[in-house]
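Retro notes (design track)

What went well: tokenization of the new backbones is finally stable.
What didn't: we kept losing track of which sequence belonged to which structure.
Fix going forward: every design gets posted as structure first, then sequence, in one message. First example under the new rule, 288 residues:
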């Protein structure tokens, strides 16, 4: 196949992936159990923020809820991207979806694009469920045109940076039950990421750990978009480090987009009709 032919084949795979992602999103939003999952944490966060009404950051007159909300936005983006896709990989392996994708030219590219779109759209639903009621504590937040442009950029880059990484990690698990380990690991990464506590108050080595993962940078980006400029004093170096944020997230995106199709193809090569049938029988034996 010529270079032009390969390029056109990849474009066709991307278009197919976008169509697949849109359809999967519609089917997912029609499932009550999925909708409950998408809304559960945002509703819990929103309720917590509502209870913070009238409270201020110690030593200041800045609303506590307004201080916490941007970090919750960043955390929700990272958590949705890093944990959501991984849980679907093992299921798709068990029901034969990956086997069918393997048999399609550039099928893994289309599969990855579909997952990015699906989890971008569903994460957007979760964020809307969080942000709308949380605006009741937004009196001290900066909500101008710059805020919205920056938040949209952070959201898109954040999903592209986290979903491929989640797909690659999910490919390493043999069953859907094992993806709970990734959920626990992601939860642990929140601790050194400055989401609920200023990262500058942590030991230096923990600060470096936090800065190695998207949680910190997405939280920082959301804070830079929504908090007044005076609040930058609580950040490392007294700076929002916007350029560094996009560089780090861009590195995660590039590495994920390169590695995810490779890992998926290698994993799919180990699959066959018989292994899919055996996995399905194990799944049915559990009574699902």
């Amino acid at each position: 196949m010529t270079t032009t032919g390969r390029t056109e084949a990849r474009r066709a795979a991307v278009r197919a992936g976008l169509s697949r992602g849109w359809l999967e999103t519609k089917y997912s939003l029609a499932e009550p159990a999925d909708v409950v999952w998408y809304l559960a944490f945002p509703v819990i966060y929103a309720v917590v923020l509502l209870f913070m009404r009238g409270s201020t950051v110690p030593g200041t007159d800045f609303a506590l809820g307004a201080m916490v909300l941007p970090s919750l936005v960043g955390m929700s983006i990272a958590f949705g991207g890093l944990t959501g896709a991984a849980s679907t990989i093992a299921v798709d392996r068990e029901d034969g979806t990956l086997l069918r994708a393997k048999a399609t030219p550039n099928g893994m590219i289309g599969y990855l694009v579909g997952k990015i779109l699906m989890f971008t759209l569903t994460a957007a639903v979760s964020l809307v469920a969080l942000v709308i009621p949380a605006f009741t504590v937004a009196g001290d937040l900066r909500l101008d045109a710059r805020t919205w442009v920056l938040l949209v950029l952070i959201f898109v880059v954040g999903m592209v940076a986290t979903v491929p990484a989640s797909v690659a990690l999910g490919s390493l698990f043999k069953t859907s039950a094992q993806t709970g380990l990734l959920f626990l690991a992601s939860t642990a990464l929140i601790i050194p990421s400055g989401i609920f506590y200023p990262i500058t108050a942590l030991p230096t080595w923990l600060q470096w750990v936090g800065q190695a993962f998207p949680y910190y940078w997405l939280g920082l980006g959301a804070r830079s978009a929504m908090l007044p400029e005076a609040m930058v004093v609580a950040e490392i170096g007294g700076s929002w480090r916007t350029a560094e944020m996009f560089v780090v997230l861009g590195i995660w995106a590039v590495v994920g987009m390169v590695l995810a199709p490779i890992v998926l193809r290698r994993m799919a090569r180990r699959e066959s009709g018989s292994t899919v049938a055996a996995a399905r029988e194990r799944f049915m034996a559990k009574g699902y």
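Added context from the reviewer: Residues 3-285 form one domain.
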